[in-house]
Description:
32% strand, 15% helix, alpha+beta
Amino acid sequence: MKIVCIGRNYAEHAAEMKAELPSAPVFFMKPDTALLRDNAFYLPSFTQDLHYECELVVKMDKMGKHIDPEYASNYYSHISLGIDFTARDLQNRCKEKGLPWEMAKAFDNSAVVSDRWLPVEEFPLEKAQFSFYQNDILKQQASGSEMLFSIDQILGYVSQLITLKTGDLIFTGTPAGVGPVAIGDALKGVLEGQEMFHITVK
Ligand code: MG
């Protein structure tokens, strides 16, 4: 299983990162070891600026290569919510030097995914409303409709290059409002009014 993450997929977040709007989806990957398994998240010692990025997540139902965006909706049936944890200080250093982002993005436990999944039949991703709270303070709130590239465009684009397999996860990008986390923080994600995850940073 692999995790494909889209960057700069919300205009306001690209602006807060002082990044240009992409003309094609920007993506990177996290390995399966990045998935947080038991909800026990420990602040890593190698970063002084760990950021949350709350994102809609899609799970592949079947293998896909050269997926036609027109038929991409046949490849997934459920959406969820997660956090793309990012070591922002390391990422900024990588960006300055034009280096890959893996050390800032792909480390152990950097991918939080709710164990709850909502059917797209009932909750289409394109309209999904989600919000993220840090210590009960609203930090991020968005709708899937604000994504620059739709999930169907993303699957079409990525699968031209990389075969997507059953169980692969797609993080679809974060809206504006990202920020640092500290030990003791309670991080909560809500999708369509339903609490999807609630973790405490240790
Ligand atoms: Mg992200």
